[in-house]
Write a sequence for this structure.
RNA sequence: GCCCCCAUCGUCUAGAGGCCUAGGACGCCACCCUUUCAAGGUGGAGAUCACCGGUUCGAAUCCGGUUGGGGGCACCA
């Protein structure tokens, strides 16, 4: 493939250009990741540029969210804003579009001077009217070209009328060809662009398609890796690069991330904010691994990769062409894999903000072996650990007498078994109150009674944790301690008594 | 409507003309392990490679068409 980059090509410069109109989106995150992996793989430079030209929709808060979550994922860049609100770093700054307006004005002026652009006096209302008529006639919407060749007199007339002119780029009637690293050669007739396109509004503010091109050229971007939704816009960009006298970068349009119904992933149908995943306790390692494999694979059967390995193995040519459905089950699986791969100490640090403060650091570290392989997300720890911090009364309020009974045992039998269990606990000294000892005693008791261990343990589990599903029973009891276990069993016995009596 | 892109198990994918009676992973089912739930182990179901034509000794892989899906068509980004 033409212009295929090689490892060690230091001249390569890529960029990510998020718009702070919302929190970091899954799709933006993956595009950022692919740019990052590509840059690191070839030893190029990665630039972050903030497309904050939409003052109405954009906000500092979103910019902060984007930068913060990019960092969270482990993605780093060489030029751009390092911290939201902080100084931009790099030789081609500023890296905020809102601070580059003079450049856009100057570049638009150049196009005007060379007659590759012209002033258009049509008002948005007039344009709208024309577009509506075209739609009614089932014609593709297209600029009429009314102001394309205005005489000086006509221009003066509009000016004296008080009209403010927008600047339009004169779109030539040719077939634009460009090479895409993923799709190969793409040819699109410029005619499909809908006529001469506005590049600067009548209020003087530049439009996105003009601004990206100006900035990419100014920042010496050599490879533009972006979502496939930009494929149709690319001819316009190519034309603009040429009109401005710049080299055209190499493009790579990556497939879209899809909703389960295979439409472009949207907030409407899916959870799209990276922040939301972070808050639920997805690990950045899992997120990165998952995102990297949505549309790319190393061509082998390995599939657990750290960011660094991903950068070593990533090859843009191996990116798939078709869109990929966001498969949450797979993300969950990967998250579990990464959670289980952490040491207890590492996991404790990550879990701190997800569990109640009432559980101190020692207590947290102690439960981890019991809950580690039961978590899909870090936030799941809260429920798994709840029995430790809940008051005895709260635990008891979670179940009724029926909840304590095994399928085959009635209230009286259950009370008898629980009483026996209580005897075993009471006979265990506080210093011997450990999982191994407790299990041995309770198993012995179950056997003596002729009960299956599982049946015997069920009322105990419910009494101790207030739940039929819990971390391992004896480890849980050890953590809870002798006195609280006895109290909880007493509470359960009391509930049973009300039924037995009746 | 017009333009563009795409098409392998439900999902993510391997596959660069013979290695494919199409491989892996997630999910699903069964069994094993087992104090519940998980985790782990073993096995299984699941894809006539969208369809139709062509090229070739040979096609999931190349070409053309059809169908289906998606994306783009602003003085939004």
């Amino acid at each position: 493939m033409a212009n295929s980059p090689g490892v060690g090509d230091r001249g390569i410069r890529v960029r990510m250009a998020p718009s702070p109109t919302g929190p970091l989106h899954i799709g933006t995150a993956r595009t950022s990741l692919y740019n990052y992996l590509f840059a690191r793989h070839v030893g190029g430079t990665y630039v972050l540029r903030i497309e904050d030209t939409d003052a109405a929709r954009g906000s500092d808060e979103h910019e902060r969210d984007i930068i913060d979550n990019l960092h969270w994922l482990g993605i780093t860049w060489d030029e751009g804003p390092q911290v939201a609100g902080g100084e931009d770093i790099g030789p081609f700054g500023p890296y905020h579009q809102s601070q580059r307006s003079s450049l856009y004005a100057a570049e638009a002026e150049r196009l005007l001077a060379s007659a590759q652009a012209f002033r258009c006096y049509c008002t948005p209302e007039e344009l709208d009217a024309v577009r509506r008529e075209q739609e009614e006639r089932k014609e593709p919407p297209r600029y009429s070209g009314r102001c394309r060749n205005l005489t000086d007199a006509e221009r003066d007339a509009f000016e004296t009328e008080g009209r403010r002119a927008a600047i339009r780029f004169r779109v030539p009637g040719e077939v634009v060809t460009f090479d895409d690293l993923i799709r190969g050669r793409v040819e699109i007739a410029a005619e499909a662009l809908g006529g001469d396109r506005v590049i600067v509004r009548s209020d003087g503010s530049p439009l996105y398609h003009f601004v990206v091109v100006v900035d990419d050229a100014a920042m010496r971007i050599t490879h533009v890796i972006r979502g496939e939704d930009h494929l149709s816009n690319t001819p316009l960009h190519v034309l603009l690069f040429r009109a401005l006298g710049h080299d055209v970068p190499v493009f790579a349009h990556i497939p879209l991330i899809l909703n389960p119904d295979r439409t472009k992933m949207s907030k409407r149908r899916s959870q799209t904010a990276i922040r939301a995943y972070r808050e639920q306790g997805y690990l950045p390692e899992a997120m990165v691994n998952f995102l990297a494999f949505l549309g790319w694979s190393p061509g082998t059967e390995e599939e657990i990769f750290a960011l660094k390995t991903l950068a070593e193995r990533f090859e843009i040519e191996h990116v798939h062409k078709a869109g990929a459905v966001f498969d949450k089950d797979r993300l969950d699986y990967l998250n579990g894999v990464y959670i289980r791969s952490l040491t207890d100490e590492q996991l404790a640090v990550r879990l701190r903000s997800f569990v109640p403060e009432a559980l101190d650091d020692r207590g947290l570290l102690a439960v981890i072996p019991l809950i580690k392989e039961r978590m899909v997300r870090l936030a799941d720890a809260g429920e798994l650990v709840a029995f430790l911090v809940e008051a005895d009364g709260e635990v008891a309020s979670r179940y009724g007498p029926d909840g304590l009974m095994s399928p085959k045992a009635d209230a009286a039998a259950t009370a008898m078994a629980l009483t026996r269990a209580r005897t075993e606990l009471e006979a265990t000294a506080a210093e011997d109150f450990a999982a191994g000892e407790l299990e041995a005693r309770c198993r012995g008791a179950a056997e003596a009674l002729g009960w299956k261990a599982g049946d015997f343990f069920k009322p105990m589990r419910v009494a101790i944790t207030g739940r039929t599903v819990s971390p391992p029973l004896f480890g849980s009891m050890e953590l809870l301690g002798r006195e609280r276990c006895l109290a909880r069993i007493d509470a359960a016995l009391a509930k049973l008594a009300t039924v037995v009596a009746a």
About this structure: Chain A has three domains: 13-258, 274-387, 390-501. The two ends of chain A are 84 Å apart (CA to CA). The first strand of chain A starts at residue 13 and ends at 16. Confidence is low (pLDDT under 50) at residues 1-8 of chain A.
